[in-house]
Amino acid sequence: MLTANILNLFDQTIFYGTITFENNRIREINKLGPERSDAPYVLPGFVDAHVHVESSLLTPPQFARLAVVHGTVATVSDPHEIGNVLGVAGVQYMIEEARRVPFKFMFGAPSCVPATTFETAGATIGVKDVRNLLALKEIGYLAEMMNFPGVLHRDPEVMAKIALAQAFNKPVDGHAPGLMGDEAQQYIDAGITTDHECFTYEEGLDKAKRGMYILIREGSAARNFDALIPLLAQFPERIMFCSDDKHPDTLAVGHINQLVLRALAKGHSIWNVLRAACLNPVLHYRLSVGLLREGDPADYIVVDNLHSFHVLKTVINGEVVAENGQSNIPDLRSEHVNQFNCLPKKPDEFVVASLRQQERGRELETERLPNPMVGERPERGVIRVIEALDGQLITNELHLFPKLDRDQIVSDVERDVLKLVVVNRYQDAPPSIAFIKNFGLKHGAIASSVGHDSHNITAIGCDDESICKAVNLVIEAKGGLSAVSNWLAIDRKNDEELLLPLPVAGLMTDSDGYAVANQYTLLDQYAKQELGSTLAAPFMTLSFMALLVIPNLKLSNKGLFDGRNFSFVSLETENQGL
């Protein structure tokens, strides 16, 4: 029996009472009197309404081990990260790993694997695969439909996947950044019910008015809480909280509980806040999560008060999984599944010839006479440069003159225009190379095998030697995050190399989640304090620079990509001015 102040989210009341349990369910709830100030509070547990568990760098058991401490009892989890590496087998791996712990993971059937045809992934999940996945009880929805152009143009395969979800009576998650007006309505009319990609209030308002559920995202890279939280008061029945991507250092500190506190601090009704954090995800996705009703599973949290929301206890199916800041979920090891087939690289593979040098090379290859116009062109043609935005997944496209060194385009540290590379991890192939602004590195390089959504190796650096070292550390480990210094460039001390191995699909590790959080913190701090990155989460931001379905300019292993027009573009622009 539990005696406490009990919150009823359905009739929005608080009373002092008792809860009795039987067979891990709530048998009876009795009211003893009005709310008491000297008693703790019991309420339904928090739900992350959209998350890629793989982005925590942790296997499902390790993710759960950290999340329960903060009062999270369930997640709506899209396994398309591992799906892009290992296909259906990767999704099944996540399901099997999730079964090892009492935490309530609900997975979706990935709808876009690969995310586009403009990149190399490790697998394909087709219509037949989606059908087989949706038939599983562990698969509760069709995961985010990132191919919104395919929805708008009624691509047969896209529409077939949506039709399958509807036939199985399972929701369809959305992903349509920037889509508004008639196009948003077409997207919704196709059967898509949610969106977690709104990055302005106006966009969220437009979609909410059209009946869409808006998931307010506050992750390690994309942070839209402040822009979207005003929608909670207007559409309390259509708002949920999610993290989307949550790195281990921030997961160790907090989860959905942090969004609850921030929403309350902005003056929102506690009932609206808890509706977004606890109730709406369970009702929309039909999760098997208890909501403190008689007959429900015994899923709940106990907090000290309704101001600090300090979680005293987390209970799932009657089992105490966390208490007083300590997780009771065991530290479990897992099988290391993977697909990593590329060989180490050499520095000269990352060289970018100047535009004039490229023309000279083409002339020699075709044995043509020199074009008299060549000599009249400027030595430095204008190039397209990706502008990374701190706290956002979207990028801008800049047109800048490059820095040249001996007929090569090189990183320009002074202007913070650095070389960005994507290396195919599934087969040996030449790296794809572009340039990016706003990472702030002063020397060295960072690299990662977490590169949404195909998870090739992505790296940024100040010189080709450092980029090559960082990439090869990841290749040799068959997955991981790396940082290397080039102290000789600033005449200080010997070079250093740091690596966080990710042996599970090149995305995750089964090591102790708290130890991984500490390792990641050290790596993150090194990228900022020693290498000079000015971003809040440089590795998380790096992981999205190959995500082609988020505009404007990104880089895949096949080339520079314009996400607005869904087509490749050249490094050089037609514009010769700034």
Report on this structure.
By secondary structure, this protein is an alpha/beta fold. The chain folds into two domains: 45-288, Alpha-Beta Barrel (TIM Barrel); 347-568, no CATH class. It has 17 helices and 29 strands. Strands 3-2-1-4-13-14-15-16 form an eight-stranded mixed β-sheet, with no helix packed on it. An eight-stranded mixed β-sheet has the order 18-17-22-21-24-23-25-26, sandwiched between helices. Helix 2 crosses helix 3 and helix 12 packs antiparallel against helix 13. The model is unreliable at 361-378 (pLDDT under 50).
Please give the structural blueprint.
Blueprint: E1 2-8, E2 13-22, E3 25-34, E4 41-43, E5 46-51, H1 60-67, E6 72-77, H2 80-86, H3 88-98, E7 104-109, H4 127-134, E8 139-145, H5 148-152, H6 156-167, E9 172-174, H7 181-189, E10 194-195, H8 201-209, E11 213-217, H9 225-228, H10 231-234, E12 239-242, H11 248-253, H12 256-265, H13 270-285, E13 300-303, E14 311-316, E15 319-323, E16 326-327, H14 355-366, E17 383-388, E18 395-400, E19 403-404, E20 409-410, E21 417-423, E22 432-437, E23 445-448, E24 457-461, H15 464-477, E25 480-484, E26 497-501, H16 513-530, H17 538-543, E27 553-556, E28 559-562, E29 567-568
Parallel strand pairs: 1-4, 5-6, 6-7, 7-8, 8-9, 10-11, 11-12, 17-22
Antiparallel strand pairs: 1-2, 2-3, 4-13, 13-14, 14-15, 15-16, 17-18, 19-20, 21-22, 21-24, 23-24, 23-25, 25-26, 27-28, 28-29
